Amino acid sequence: MSGLVIRDAAPADAGLVHAFVVELAVYEKLAHEVRSTPELIAEALFRPAPRLFANVAEWDGAPAGFALWFYNFSTFQGRHGLYVEDLYVREAMRGHGIGKALLRSLARRCRDEGLARLDWSVLDWNRPSIDFYKAQGAVMLDGWTQCRLSGDALTRLAGLPDAAERP
User: pTM of this prediction?
Assistant: First the structure.
């Protein structure tokens, strides 16, 4: 692909990565849930010993998309893997193989580092993405339901008072 470059995100990309996060949230109809800022993204990606990583895709020099990921661990495999938190290609840039190239770069990282697997989630209504992932050989794990604790529920489980109960 002559116009495609995939590179590790640099500190100067924090605002761009945040913009991609917001664009993805709008696409997923979840913009109301975005609480991150470019500063929080920069802190997470570029702190000493980061636990979050990003790759930026550029098409003919223009920002086209990104993958945001971190290492996870499979107790069954006894090895680490990668979890893709976000994979997004701007609508105007789709159809150039950018999403596939981002996934391919992460798959290569898995192989190069001896990682067991590459995982991610997709919204059940997002048929274009589901079809794209299946075309790459992904298996939909229908028997698994993703769980999340956040906000007051997380605070309660931690044994701390809810926001309404705090002074």
Answer: 0.89
CA distance linking residue 135 with residue 129, whole number of Å: 10
Over residues 3-18, mean pLDDT: 97
Whether residue 133 lies in the annotated active site:
yes
Distance CA 13, CA 26 (A): 20
Question: Exposed (0-12), middle (13-18) or buried (19+): which is 23, by Cβ within 10 Å?
Answer: middle
**Of 9 and 166, which is predicted with more confidence?**
9
Nearest to 98 by CA among 141, 50, 139, 62: 62
Catalytic residue among 27, 71, 83, 133: 133
Q: What is the mean pLDDT of residues 5-27?
A: 98
